[in-house]
């Protein structure tokens, strides 16, 4: 039998494939890669005869799929560390907002920050995530809240994916908050989002999806539905910030429009979860924001299990409620704060995170035909990923079949 050609062979470690959201461990596994994709995976002793241009032999350890951070706000101007300090000194969120703080302070800073500077600041935040194994990330707009600034943010996000070896998916979150110039005119602003911002970013290919914030301090379900209809008309899938602070049945609305995901979900109801399960909408859980806001109501993990709703995890990296630069830390938080299992947590940043971005056919698991994106860890058990707190593990990251420096 003649040899099969491939670009590279990789073996010498146990492989955690995450097929079906489970570890599916292959002890002493091997993978063959061609054109940036996996062309064979299985036990090393079953490896067919391959003629490889390159062989990489690991000295033990674990291989997992590349990590996917499926909900971030990584591009923004300024920071809100002063507000963090104020809150810890007893100043209320309402008082901070009255002083011009909160999300509007980030909007002002983002509008006043040059595009190149936004890019440099975002690179600074993205690099720690890359260093611990993130190979795909979603980045939202939403701190511009006018056409030029929203497009500026999305251009920066696109540029990050051109400068670094990482897949970047962009999301238009213009319906994030009410900008000062539309004070008292929320419906007018939603008209502007629907008729100007969404069509323009779609026409210029700057957004892969559309998101909105459905909450009593943001936009109502009726207003969000108009955003969803505009996204639909522009040919873009939708996502939703829902049930973070109160129950408005936003996640049921998201399910109605077959949203890729509904995110946060601390106050989601059983009927919401049931609707999400039927629609295939992923629950994206954000323990960083839960932790920083000192929330006490956990997302209903048991309901998600009961109705077979995939649970993804993300850093929610943002200046106000989750200044998190470690996705691996979110694994531990999900286990300790939300009572997820380590296996569920790892699925949350691999296969389920891929589904939350519509990428389940190409990323999120280690299988034949999928992108050769993985991380080699100096660990003996996959649960260690959720076990260790902090520290920089000496990982090797492979992106589309090439070792990422």
List key phrases describing it.
single chain, 8-stranded parallel sheet, alpha/beta, 8-stranded mixed sheet, globular, 405 residues
Structure description:
This protein is of the alpha/beta class and 405 residues long. The protein has 15 helices and 16 strands. The strands form two sheets. Strands 1, 2, 3, 4, 5, 14, 15 and 16 form an eight-stranded mixed β-sheet that branches. Strands 6-7-8-9-10-11-12-13 form an eight-stranded parallel β-sheet. Strand 11, helix 9 and strand 12 form a beta-alpha-beta unit. Helix 8 runs parallel beside helix 9. The longest helix has 18 residues. The radius of gyration is 21 Å and the shape is globular. It starts with a strand and ends with a strand. The mean pLDDT is 96.
Describe, in short, the structure shown.
The chain has 405 residues and is of the alpha/beta class. The chain is built from 15 helices and 16 strands.
